[in-house]
């Protein structure tokens, strides 16, 4: 059980819970709810669930909401079968209790969990396998806490590696040798792709809850440092890039950029390594601050704090790698940082709850280079001009809004060699939408999109939700892979689509492919190709 805290006392008007129910609810809240509502329930992607609100909403309202969900993105935990009727009732009562405060996680806790599994001296000095590393995919197997390494050509699973709980994303070191994986339990695993059989060489737990990991990408600093950002405690840690030894922990607690009021839980969302300065771009969700953390001298850490917008979440670089565009999702905006000049380049109003993943870069026939995001809260796809030199009038403006298939979109993708723009809708409430993807022709955006029935192509029968999530290209940009994400006890698959013909190329099925979600092609992830 990752969180600590005390069981509640009895309060007038607040339903009671047994110790066992409280402990079970705390675990469910951590696993299912804290990501959107926050450990202290102050809200971010989801609304605040502080007791002043929940006690006013009342038990019946809360029960219904948890059961049926909402079109704004709250999953239907009850009717989907994820939670039983008794669990829904228990969770409704739980959010009416005061939230337990989890413990801190400083250097001593990190050092206790830090382990170098294979010392640097015992690692190979050259690649010892015949794997085409650049075209390898690291696939999140969410509910087994594993990743699968899948060869991009043969579609064979090269290895399945045990990682952190509810594993979230993979990132690749600048050299391409090391793969870093982070779980929701804040465990970071470092995998050496040069070993005869790629495996873990170091591991550490950087907190109790986390989502992001990255490595130093600046010329001259390749593979030198890794960084992980935590949701709880709200902090980031810079680690040695070869051993994961924790070197510098910095708390992100502080004041919001606008009202300048103290926030106890400003979580670290996306992190990207700058190519223009020896810096990490660290996005702090609740305070709306973007930190440029300079790693040249860890004993005299220089941090440039850029005031951007609250509820920063996910984002990616523009095609030149100079500008970082990040969704401030509950503010319906995208903030743009110039990583070269270290300043805010723009704030762009987009649709409702932008959720780009790393977004999609392409050259618009009329507006020049653009970066695109789809949205959780509406059906639109926003295109933002990213070329202040060649197209200054369009830079950091929403130049076009495309009509997409529906809300509930999480990821959008293209590739420099492709003229397709792919939009998923895994959190839409209509099966027709969450089981398919939409694809636009970049050269004919006015034509609208074509819908491809990805889940039907996977041919898994009618069991489970079969949500189609996150497209990822192979290195050559000739095919795109989608996960058909089912329950833990059901069959899932990866569907490979030929980019040119938009026809089914391959369905990857394997009993080990349990709950596949994110996929990270080593070359595209390392080089920020999207
Ligand atoms: Fe993610 C990226 C947080 C739920 C799949 N997710 C991110 C990032 C953050 C984040 C901060 C950016 C990391 C970076 O770039 O450094 N995700 C959260 C949450 O807080 C949230 C909403 C709720 C939670 O409890 O975790 C959440 N995410 C999910 C899922 O349910 C998804 C769909 C399935 C899964 O595997 O958990 C999911 N998130 C992903 C993926 C990426 C991601 C695949 C990376 C996309 C990329 O292209 O880089």
Oligomer: single chain
**Euclidean distance between termini CA atoms:** 37 Å
Helix content: 10-25%
Report the sheet-strand fraction: 35-45%
Q: How many helices?
A: 8
Q: How are the strands ordered across the major sheet?
A: 1-8-7-6-5
Bound molecules: heme D
Q: What does the radius of gyration come to? A: 22 Å
Summarize the structure.
This protein has 530 residues and is mainly beta. 13% of the residues lie in helices and 36% in strands.
What's the helix and strand layout?
Elements: H1 19-37, H2 51-57, H3 59-68, H4 85-94, H5 107-113, E1 115-116, E2 136-141, E3 146-151, E4 157-162, E5 169-172, E6 178-182, E7 187-192, E8 199-205, E9 209-215, E10 225-232, E11 235-240, E12 246-251, E13 254-255, E14 262-263, E15 268-273, E16 279-284, E17 289-294, E18 302-307, E19 312-317, E20 323-328, E21 333-338, E22 343-349, E23 360-364, E24 368-373, E25 380-385, E26 398-403, E27 412-413, E28 420-424, H6 431-434, E29 437-441, E30 449-452, H7 454-458, E31 467-473, E32 479-485, E33 493-498, E34 504-508, E35 516-521, H8 522-526
Antiparallel strand pairs: 1-8, 2-3, 2-35, 3-4, 5-6, 6-7, 7-8, 9-10, 10-11, 11-12, 13-14, 15-16, 16-17, 17-18, 19-20, 20-21, 21-22, 23-24, 24-25, 25-26, 27-28, 28-29, 29-30, 31-32, 32-33, 33-34
The structure holds heme D (DHE).
Heme D is lined by residues 35-36, 45, 140, 142, 168-169, 211-212, 269-271, 313-314, 357-358, 410, 469-470, 517-518.
């Amino acid at each position: 059980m990752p969180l600590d805290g005390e069981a509640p006392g009895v309060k007038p008007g607040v339903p009671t819970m047994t110790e066992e129910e409280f402990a079970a609810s705390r675990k469910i809240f951590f696993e299912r709810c804290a990501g959107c509502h926050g450990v202290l329930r102050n809200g971010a992607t989801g609304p605040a669930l502080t007791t002043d609100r929940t006690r006013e909403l009342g038990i019946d309202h809360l029960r219904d909401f948890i059961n049926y969900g909402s079109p704004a993105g709250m999953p239907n935990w009850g009717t989907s079968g994820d939670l039983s009727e008794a669990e829904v009732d228990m969770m409704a009562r739980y959010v009416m209790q005061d939230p337990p405060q989890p413990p801190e996680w400083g250097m001593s806790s990190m050092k206790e969990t830090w382990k170098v599994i294979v010392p640097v001296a015992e690692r190979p000095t050259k690649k010892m396998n015949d794997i085409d590393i650049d075209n390898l995919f690291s696939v999140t197997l969410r509910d087994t806490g594993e990743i699968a390494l899948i060869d991009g050509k043969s579609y064979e699973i090269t290895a399945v590696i045990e990682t952190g709980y509810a594993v979230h994303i993979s990132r690749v070191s600048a050299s391409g040798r090391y793969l870093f994986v982070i779980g929701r339990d804040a465990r970071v695993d470092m995998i050496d792709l040069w070993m005869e059989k790629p495996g873990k060489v170091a591991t550490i737990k950087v907190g109790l809850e986390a989502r992001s990991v990255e490595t130093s990408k600046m010329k001259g600093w390749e593979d030198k440092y890794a960084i992980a950002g935590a949701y709880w405690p709200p902090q980031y840690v810079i680690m040695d890039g070869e051993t994961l030894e924790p070197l510098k922990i910095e708390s992100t607690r502080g004041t919001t950029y606008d009202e300048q009021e103290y926030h106890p839980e400003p979580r670290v969302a996306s992190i990207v390594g700058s190519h223009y300065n020896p810096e990490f771009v660290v996005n702090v969700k609740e305070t709306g601050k973007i930190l440029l953390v300079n790693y040249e001298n860890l004993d005299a850490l220089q941090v440039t704090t850029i005031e951007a917008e609250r509820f920063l979440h996910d984002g990616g670089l523009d095609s030149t790698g100079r500008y970082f565009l990040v969704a401030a999702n509950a503010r319906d905006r995208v903030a743009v940082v110039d990583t070269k000049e270290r300043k805010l380049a723009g704030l762009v109003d987009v649709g409702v709850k932008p959720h780009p993943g790393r977004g999609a870069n392409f050259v618009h026939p009329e507006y020049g280079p653009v970066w695109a995001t789809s949205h959780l809260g509406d059906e639109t796809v926003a295109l933002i001009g990213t070329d202040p030199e060649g197209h200054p009038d369009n830079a950091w403006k929403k130049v076009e809004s495309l009509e997409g298939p529906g809300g509930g979109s999480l990821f959008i993708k293209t590739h420099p060699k492709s003229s397709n723009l792919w939009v998923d809708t895994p959190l839409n409430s209509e099966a027709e939408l969450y089981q398919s993807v939409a694809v636009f022709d970049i050269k004919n955006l006015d034509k609208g999109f074509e819908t491809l029935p990805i889940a039907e192509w996977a041919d898994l029968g009618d069991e489970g939700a079969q949500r189609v999530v996150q497209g990822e290209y192979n290195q050559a940009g000739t095919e795109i892979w989608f996960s058909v994400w089912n329950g833990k006890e059901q069959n899932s698959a990866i569907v490979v689509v030929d980019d040119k013909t938009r026809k089914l190329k391959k369905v990857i099925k394997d009993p080990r492919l349990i709950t596949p979600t994110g996929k990270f092609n080593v070359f595209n992830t390392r080089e920020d190709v999207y």
